[in-house]
């Protein structure tokens, strides 16, 4: 529940702003309500200055008085952070009761015994679920049908026993469905240790070693590729090959990213045919590929890196599909032969459009699906490979968010996507791309009497001073006084923006945010841009 602390601190001030209060400016005689907070009554902590000269790669010099605060194991650093916490608690003491009340209200809207929508892959249904009173998820699978006996893969509650911190970094089942690889971080720094479990007998293998967080099985089900991080910068910089049962110290280095500005990200194509390494830094990306049937081979580059040249790959039959910004600031989808993927052979599948931003895509045997932004709203575009005919999925609400959800199966006509709005909790939908009919699989539960039918949403355009059109989403409670806007003084505009971003956009894992809908002011969200 620690993730709710920020909301509990931020919400009181913002909700108070939404009330109909009189405020003063230079043109009124109204009084201003004094602040509850009096930080000047307390002594703020100040860390000791220890000047250190730093020299950048370009030779520029600067002095940092507080560089020593990066020493994680220094007792003085911990003492300073604890003093900051005490200072914050003292300043916020006047609203301690309200913070606790809001925290309990938000927590009460979370369904403790909840589960994810099962997804199907390689003959098994995979499920993640919570049990009441337990903090961590339990991951399991069922063979063939959801009526089959449940097989526990990982119970994170068991992994966390006796540990001050525990995070599951992911899990992956081998192509033959027998071996499970899973990563766990006990440090809180995203430094993981990889473990292996024989699913035929439940035994944990002796193979165990440090990883950066990414790993993928070769198609022989005994070889696994994984990444490691630089121990100081925590930059993912190396990709290794390990064979189950072999000495970990003899693992083979497959790739090393020596450019300190680039990170090496390991993945596998949806077709399970290729490994991909994305060596990336913001918009500069270089992709390397390797046949997953030949894990002892050598990674090859699709196109050498070039500043601000971005591209990512997927695989379909005898070609790679590419999302790229090459002469396309809003991105486009292209294809190139696997046999010769040089840029000279790239051809358009979905050309660049000035009014549409392509955010993401996924590939199926018979369909291509893209996440797009147009007119300020996200949309899902379904394109049939056979004739390149396309259509957009209708959502039924004027303003919303939607995204491609878990779709591991390649040969299927069902697209799973997620949908939510300022009044609708995160909803998982299975959409038949052939019949164009959707089936709601789950609506994230919101306890405490929340009813989406009590609220109205709108999508409007505001005209800025320079004439630009700004898309805005509105939500307000239905009733005699509708569309009553929050009047915030200028210095709180940024706070409202943060509040809207962090609270008013419900996600599947945090449905409690819907609880803050039960206030009588209109909530607004300015979209990032008009595209």
Topology of this structure?
Elements: H1 5-18, E1 52-55, E2 61-64, H2 75-91, H3 96-108, E3 119-121, E4 124-129, E5 138-143, E6 151-155, H4 156-160, E7 167-173, E8 179-185, E9 192-198, E10 203-211, E11 215-217, E12 223-229, E13 236-243, E14 252-256, E15 263-268, E16 274-281, E17 284-291, E18 300-301, E19 311-316, E20 319-324, E21 332-337, E22 347-350, E23 357-363, E24 367-374, E25 377-384, E26 390-392, E27 401-404, E28 414-420, E29 427-432, E30 437-443, E31 455-463, E32 469-477, H5 493-503, E33 523-526
Antiparallel strand pairs: 1-2, 3-4, 4-5, 5-6, 7-8, 8-9, 9-10, 11-12, 12-13, 13-14, 15-16, 16-17, 17-18, 19-20, 20-21, 21-22, 23-24, 24-25, 25-26, 27-28, 28-29, 29-30, 31-32, 32-33
Helix pairs in contact: 1-3, 1-5
Q: In words, what does this structure look like?
A:
This protein is mostly beta strands. Helices cover 11% and strands 37% of the residues. It is built from five helices and 33 strands. The strands form nine sheets. It has a four-stranded antiparallel beta sheet. Strands 7-8-9-10 form a four-stranded antiparallel beta sheet. A four-stranded antiparallel beta sheet has the order 11-12-13-14, with no helix packed on it.
